[in-house]
Amino acid sequence: MESVLSPLQTARYEYKPKLPEIYTHGMCGIIAAEGEPWLPSSDCEAIRNIFPHTFGMNRVYFRKGDNCAPKKKINAGVILSGGQAPGGHNVITGLYDALKEADPANRLVGFKNGPSGLLEGSCIEFTDDLIDRYRNTGGFDIIGSGRTKLETEEQFKIAAEVCAKLGISAVVVIGGDDSNTNAAMLAEYFVRENAGIQVIGCPKTIDGDLKNEGVEISFGFDTATKTYADLIGNIERDACSARKYWHFIKVMGRSASHVALECALRTQPNVCIISEEVEAKKTSFTEITEQIVRSVCARSERGDNFGVVIVPESLIEFVPELKDLIAELNDVLASKSEELAARAGWKKYAYLETLLSPSSYKVFTLLPSNIQNQLLMDRDQHGNVQLSRIETEKLLIELVRKRLAELKHDEIYHGKFSPLSHFFGYEGRCAFPSNFDADYCYSLGYNAFMLISYSYTGYLSTISNLARPAAEWRAGGVPLTGMMNLERRSGRLKPVIKKSLVDLNGAPFRYFAERRGRWAVETCYTFPGAIQYYGPPSVCDAVTKTLELEQTERMKKRG
Ligand code: FBP
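Above: the input record for the complex with 1,6-di-O-phosphono-beta-D-fructofuranose. Below: its predicted structure, written as tokens.
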């Protein structure tokens, strides 16, 4: 089938992603310098025991100097892993360009459909023609993605055999916390077995929760949040034009509320719930309902029977009463999913009652049946509940509606409540990457090659100083094992890269918390508009409010 290109796609093919200044003069002037060992902030001994060969490695920085990387031919393989995030194609194009710049005889293959492609040896070799068709485009369709977890010795052995057969000496895993956990385990195995295969990760996820001292933000967060903020701004404008609907908008973010918070900072809705605050204050669903109801009533008194509420998709997992229930259900479904699926109606309830604690079972029975069914759906490959399929926004609408009916009955509330629900998630994951993500991703791919050429393994490619113009960005790498901790997954404690949740003492949350009281009552909406790819840098290269506030705070701390 002949594909028809949109004018924007044609124009984006021509876009030349910006690189950190040190990478703009060719590779011969770059040297790797090492800093301090990068250690986990918790569970240090356990992680050291699990990763004896890749634990305690130093942080790496690339600087100007005479390149002393060993001259070697490199055949690399790349995997796109987990949920789509804008810019994934540019990580591949940056890696490809760097490989070819170093030596046109170097080769890059892409494993198809995520980590399973590595196990099946299912891959394609990239050529100039193929790469050129994906430059600066959204999506992961160049090779596809998947969520297969690589964690058994048998899988690692197969991966080593596949790489040996294909002559591959380096694997680049483009993924989030779970996928880079896979990368760390693979790296450890390859070192232990002397397989001669390096593993480098690249930080991907729209959720923005793969960040720490060494990683300022994962790619995709910028474009996805700008896409959602555009849509939310449009809804806000519709809301204050029509003046008749309350919009409940759930946004993606499997655990952390960074996406919801960033959208709130950009659009100033009436209410935005932050899961991390809910957890810290042990806020119940009833209290969250009251918070929204207070805004509805206060606005109604001003004659404003409309509004916008942003809800993070993770909320249901952070509300205390549901958190325990979900954790128990995750364990139950890890071991008893077939037995449960074999039962229906009251038999299913009776069986669940024997598996759950009495308090969790009680919470389960109080939920509407659609939410119960959504909570019992299959887990993802990592044993996580599939939150994007749970309609928390509709649950909240029902709870608010019920409470307002009581207040109306008591003649406390006299307004009109017409709610509409939305879910923004998949809309943002494959958008054309913003200039920021196009540049950042290309740099991450290029930098992954530099780590490979300097023989590093078990590292995450990092580009930092991101709130500054690209020329001032810094390039380097942090050891994957330094980001790990132990977490309970599918009923067992496992090493995983620690997710970064919203810091309630951090600048982005504080900025929001200082203003939300006014936003709840008045109409303070802001309309960010669509992502701009061409125009003044202040518009086209602007970073997220989260990154801007975090960077300003970092600078202040450094004095
Ligand atoms: P990653 O962590 O793999 O980047 O995926 C994040 C995410 O987009 C979440 O926000 C969302 O809950 C989930 O993926 C949806 O997964 P799926 O694509 O399997 O429906």
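Notes for the reader.
The chain is about 45% helix and 15% strand.
The radius of gyration is 24 Å.
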